[in-house]
């Protein structure tokens, strides 16, 4: 197992959330202990998910709350350190997706997008890095999107937030590299998850026609990228990078 005994914090985790389910399972299978943030899911269902993960031998703690709220982040990080004494990997997966032409977009839609998809990444990073610096080691993995690289009709707010995540990740990679911390992004293309359920069919059809591999990606085709970046020696010299499991939607 590549991550035996490592401690991994994952935001936006939960049994009904596509990659929010896929990432914890993948890390548990590799021997990691997990600290999971979730929000809006049925508590008993989440507890069942915890039991499922523990069958792989992982220790798991759950913290419910809106990850764009600073108190939620502080409690998540403090409970992780109190339980495990360290944090090896931070995986920022929490996100929302809404659609609107810019001329029709309410200000509160824009603001909420920035809070969940960008501000939360700043908050979790700020609270986690003192522990990683003291360890002289850590991996930060931020889930961006190919839309943050190329834009998208009716997704200007989403594109702006995810582009912000990419720029933020490059900056912290430069700031933290001397402290033994690597920071990278994963920018998936359209993936068959709950987020896609909120996207209208016209947009999906248009997007599928743009893809070199003309289909939605699956969760199990994305999560190995996070394992790669979190592992040694696999991810040792990757930092400030954006890896793109995106069906050819963006080619760099």
Written overview of the protein:
Helix content is 45%, strand content 13%. It is globular and about 50 Å long. Strands 3-2-1-4-5-6-7 form a 7-stranded parallel beta sheet, with helices on both faces. The protein has a single domain (7-243), classed as NAD(P)-binding Rossmann-like Domain (Rossmann fold, 3-Layer(aba) Sandwich). It has helices at 19-29, 43-54, 70-84, 107-135, 147-150, 156-176, 194-197, 201-210, 223-230, and strands at residues 7-10, 33-38, 60-64, 89-92, 138-143, 181-186, 242-243. The protein has 252 residues and is α/β, with parallel strands linked by helices. It starts with 6 loop residues before the first strand and ends in a 9-residue tail after the last strand. The chain is built from 9 helices and 7 strands, in the order βαβαβαβαβααβαααβ. Belongs to the short-chain dehydrogenases/reductases (SDR) family. Keywords: Oxidoreductase.
Between the first and last Cα atoms, what is the distance in angstroms? 31 Å
Structural class: alpha/beta
What is the total domain count? Answer: 1
- The CATH superfamily is NAD(P)-binding Rossmann-like Domain
Beta-strand share of residues: 5-15%
**Rg estimate, integer Å:** 17 Å
**Overall average residue pLDDT:** 95
CATH topology: Rossmann fold
Low-confidence stretches: none
Please write the CATH class name: Alpha Beta
Measured as a percent range, the helix fraction is 40-55%
- Major beta-sheet overview: 7 strands, parallel
Keywords: Oxidoreductase
GO molecular function: oxidoreductase activity
Protein name: 3-oxoacyl-ACP reductase FabG
Family: Belongs to the short-chain dehydrogenases/reductases (SDR) family.
């Amino acid at each position: 197992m590549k991550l035996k005994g490592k401690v991994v914090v994952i935001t936006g985790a939960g049994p009904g959330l596509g990659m929010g389910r896929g990432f914890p399972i993948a890390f548990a299978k590799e021997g990691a202990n997990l600290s999971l943030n979730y929000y809006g899911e049925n508590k008993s269902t989440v507890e069942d998910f915890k039991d499922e993960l523990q069958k792989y031998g992982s220790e798991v703690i759950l913290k419910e709350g809106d990850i764009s709220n600073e108190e939620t982040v502080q409690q998540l990080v403090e409970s992780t350190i109190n339980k495990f004494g360290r944090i090896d990997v931070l995986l920022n997966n929490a996100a929302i997706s809404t659609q609107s032409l810019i001329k029709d977009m309410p200000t509160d839609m824009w603001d909420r997008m920035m809070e969940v998809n960008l501000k939360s990444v700043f908050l979790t990073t700020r609270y986690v890095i003192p522990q990683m610096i003291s360890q002289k080691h850590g991996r930060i993995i931020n889930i961006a999107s190919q839309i943050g690289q190329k834009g998208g009709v009716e997704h200007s707010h989403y594109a702006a937030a995810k582009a912000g995540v990419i720029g933020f990740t490059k900056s912290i990679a430069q700031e933290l590299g001397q402290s033994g911390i690597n920071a990278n992004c994963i920018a998936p293309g359209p993936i068959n998850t709950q987020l896609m359920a909120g996207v209208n069919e016209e947009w999906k059809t248009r997007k599928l026609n743009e893809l070199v591999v003309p289909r939605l990606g699956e969760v199990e085709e994305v999560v190995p990228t996070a394992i790669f970046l979190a592992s040694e020696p696999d991810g040792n010299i990757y930092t400030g990078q954006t890896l793109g499991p995106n069906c050819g939607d963006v080619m760099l």
